[in-house]
Amino acid sequence: MNSVAQRDWLGCGIACTAFILGLSYNKTKQKYFQNLGDANKTGYYCPDLVAALSRAKKSYDYSYVGNKNVRCKNETIVFIKRSKRYPCGHYLVIANVLNIRTSIPRICY
What we know:
Elements: H1 12-21, H2 25-32, H3 46-55, E1 61-63, E2 76-80, E3 90-94, E4 106-108
Parallel strand pairs: 1-4, 2-4
Antiparallel strand pairs: 2-3
């Protein structure tokens, strides 16, 4: 899989989704993120990413894991909470298999 660069101020969720789908950032944004938020003003919430992935026929769910040391399945999207470094938070993709606990990938926040 090739990395996908974030092209909008708050578009890290789109980039993560594009990476999982193997598509470009722009194609993913146009095809799967219509009416879900704004990559330059509001960003995206976990349900928005789940909805976009569902439109692409991918089965994802989201759950809160807090500060636990959690091992996630390959292609899990993780939301890093707001901080000085990430004032709006940030989405990342786990891109290697760690410990498979469930057959449904999750979005952790």
